[in-house]
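batch_manifest entry 22 of 60
target: Amidohydrolase
source organism: Mycolicibacterium phlei DSM 43239 = CCUG 21000
requested by: lab member K.T.
priority: normal
notes from requester: please return tokens only, no post-processing; we will run our own comparison against the previous entry in this batch. if the run fails, retry once and flag.
--- input ---
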Amino acid sequence: MARLRDELGLTSIIDVHTHFMPKRVMDKVWAYFDGVGPLTGREWPIEYRLDEQARIGVLRSFGVRAFTSLVYPHKPQMAEWLNGWAADFARGTAGVLHTATFYPEPGAVDYVARAVDAGARVFKAHVQVGDYTPTDPLLDPVWELLEHTGIPTIIHAGSGPAPGRFTGPGPVGELLRRHPRLVLIVAHMGSPEYREFADLALRYPGVHLDTTLVFTDFTEEQAPVPADVRADLPELADKVLFGSDFPNIPYPYPDAVEALTGLGLGADWCRKVLHDNAARLFGLSTEEASIR
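--- output ---
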């Protein structure tokens, strides 16, 4: 990884899609992936099933100096507790982009506002796991607040690896019609609905795409990126951000970076995706986003 960064002229990488959670929640996530084979017909071995400090050390060894702690609730009265944990984690861990989340429930805008006041820099919305539509009326004031503040939300709304009741581009398109200035980062580039989510990124100035799992051999086998979307990648150069899904990935971390450099789009494009776009979007200082 150090050699690859040197070739690109990068001192560090920003990973916008990593998961750090309370241990009992992470254990349940890992149990889900252990059983995902029967759901998708495919095994998903977790490459970095390590304790929390070891995982942080692995990321730093790869030159990652800014990363998220994506948390997400699957039921009411869970989000605020996760936000408290994530705030403590951010305070105690250098390089973490203070992450928060929400769920369609009464009072959501109140705890989202408290998270914003506490310094949250990114939110996570997981339409598939949460089993809710992003256009739920209970979320209207949340989206209004996030649109006003310009704080990005990483949203898993694509139908991969398995569709949910509210996944797909339709609800997100409706959300953006209501809140066109929202800053959204579409997780996994919206896999497998790559085309539709890329079109949203091309249409709305605040819509971005993260590369989590995308372009790797693992994903290309079952959900390859269409040629027409690949052709749009140069135009989307300022809208694509690197994400990995660390630690819940079924292959070594460098594979995700090499999948991007292997696209043949050039060093400038790779620098934007691996670092510059996220540094700009999150307003990271040189000290925050570089190796110290």
